[in-house]
Write a structure and sequence with these properties.
Elements: E1 11-16, H1 21-30, E2 41-42, E3 48-51, H2 59-69, E4 76-80, H3 87-90, H4 94-108, H5 115-119, E5 126-128, E6 131-134, H6 150-159, E7 163-170, E8 178-184, E9 189-194, E10 197-202, H7 213-220, E11 228-231, H8 240-245, E12 251-256, H9 259-271, E13 278-282, E14 296-299, H10 309-315, E15 322-331, H11 345-350, H12 354-361, H13 381-402, E16 406-420, E17 423-434
Parallel strand pairs: 6-7, 11-12, 11-14, 12-13, 14-15
Antiparallel strand pairs: 1-3, 1-4, 2-3, 5-6, 7-8, 9-10, 15-17, 16-17
Helix pairs in contact: 4-6, 10-13, 12-13
Length: 439
């Protein structure tokens, strides 16, 4: 496995003279301590280093090697900073290597290896530097409990990391706190680099989605020079940072109510050199005091950012309006009759004839058909229907907030990722402009 930067992770090795190498190897194999993933290496002074599993070799084994296995041998422990993979390891996938090492270790503890245990091993994981983040659907069998905490040392050694964590379901606490348990290691802080941007965060306290990379790359390419942006759900800076670092936004107001995410955001703004162009608003964004300030608003919350729509309308510039980037999970079940937000009888009563109200006030050439220009030919019908209902709803909100009619236009519908079967995470780019005053 590799550590951040593309270099192999350092491994522990026991060093002795060449004539004792075979005796050492036999002993380490018998004790299930020999690391077969890496080659035995010859050191500059002529001694030989045999890679071993784990973060160190316990003193009892060092005594055994010196006193009984090879009396008179020089027996020391070192770290190989650039270990060379063995031929066997080069042809073995990480999942296969994990299965090989864990099964060998389990049997060495007197537990019979079974198909059930093998099926309970992870096939994929997230890696953040020297921390391995396992999914919730692995290591669930009762037998594993009796093998902790040494089990996690074996997993870490097999995959070349120092720390191991396992995630559960996201807590429904409004802050999207991940239910992550640290299994090996003393802290959960990690660093991840996307598109030249450094993100530091605590995996046990903050969410990080690799699936959002396409949207982060997209917003990084938007022409935001000179613009003021409000990020209503900033988190650790997933989109705040691309807008500042690459898109050239003049200033970002970043809203976040998770204190752990705010701590990471402050750190990330600093390490990326953009702290002077961002103000963090800590707390519930529905109570945000800002208004009449934004050229662009990012609403990066799923499954829906609808609670933030009124405040998004409030912060847009009164004179020129701006663009909303609205994230949403949209269902697209085959044969399902999609009913978009705002279509219930209660909502129809609350929002009377919204599209008619928009077009009737946008005179002097400002009117347009409700199916105006679209740049979303490749979208699913469900995405388009949701986008049109959101557009209608927001046009009404804009008129309520500003007291004058506004016109809206769908600029783009961007798929981000598949969130679940038949559920897609998309982003709607909606242009919102105040209607020109009549003569």
């Amino acid at each position: 496995m590799e550590r951040e930067g593309g270099k192999p992770a350092a491994v522990v090795a026991v060093v002795t003279e060449p004539r004792f190498t075979q005796r050492y190897r036999e002993y380490l194999e018998k004790q299930k301590l020999l690391d077969r993933r890496h080659r035995v290496e010859k050191m500059p002074d002529g001694t030989v280093a045999l890679p071993v599993l784990g973060e160190t070799l316990p003193e009892q084994h060092l005594h055994e090697l010196r006193d009984r296995v090879a009396p008179g041998s020089t027996c020391t422990v070192t770290q190989l900073l650039d270990p060379v993979p063995s031929k066997k390891a080069q042809g073995c996938s990480p999942a296969q290597r994990l299965c090989l090492e864990v099964s060998r270790w389990v049997e060495g503890r007197g537990v019979m290896w079974s198909a059930e245990l093998e099926a309970d091993l992870p096939r994929s994981w997230q890696r953040h530097g020297d921390l391995l983040l396992l999914s919730e659907d692995c290591f669930q069998a009762k037998q594993w409990k009796h093998l902790e905490p040494e089990l996690w040392e074996t997993v870490a050694s097999a995959l070349g990391v120092r720390r191991v964590a396992k995630r559960g379901r996201v807590s429904p606490d409004g802050a999207r706190t991940p239910a992550v348990t640290l299994l090996l290691g003393d802290h959960g802080w990690v660093e991840h680099v996307d598109n030249g941007i450094r993100y530091k965060f605590d995996v046990t306290r903050c969410m990080f989605s690799f699936g959002n990379i396409t949207e982060k790359l997209r917003v990084a390419s938007l022409p935001c020079a000179g613009e003021v942006l409000v990020d209503l759900y900033a988190g650790i800076g997933y989109f705040t940072l691309p807008f500042l670092v690459h898109a050239g936004a003049a200033f970002v107001h970043a809203c976040e109510w998770n204190p752990h995410a705010v701590a990471a955001l402050r750190k990330n703004l600093d390490i990326n050199g953009v702290a002077d162009r961002c103000k963090i608003h800590f707390g519930d964004n529905r109570k945000l005091k800002l208004s009449n300030i934004a050229d662009r608003v990012n609403l990066g919350l799923i499954p829906s950012s609808e609670e933030g729509w009124p405040i998004a309308c409030q912060v847009l510039r009164h004179d020129a309006g701006g663009i909303l980037h609205i994230h949403q999970n949209v269902e697209s079940y085959p044969g399902k009759n999609h009913q978009p937000p705002g279509s219930s009888e209660m909502e129809k009563e609350h929002w009377p004839y919204p599209q008619q109200m928009i077009t009737s006030h946008c005179t002097n050439g400002a009117t347009r058909d409700s199916r105006g220009k679209r740049q979303s030919a490749a979208t699913k019908p469900e995405w388009q229907r949701w986008a049109e209902s959101a557009e209608t709803r927001l046009a009404t909100l804009l008129q309520q907030v500003h007291g004058t009619p506004w016109k809206t236009q769908i600029l783009h519908i961007q798929p981000v990722k598949s969130y679940a079967p038949h559920v897609d995470h998309i982003v709607l780019d909606l242009e919102c402009r105040p209607c020109p005053l009549v003569g």
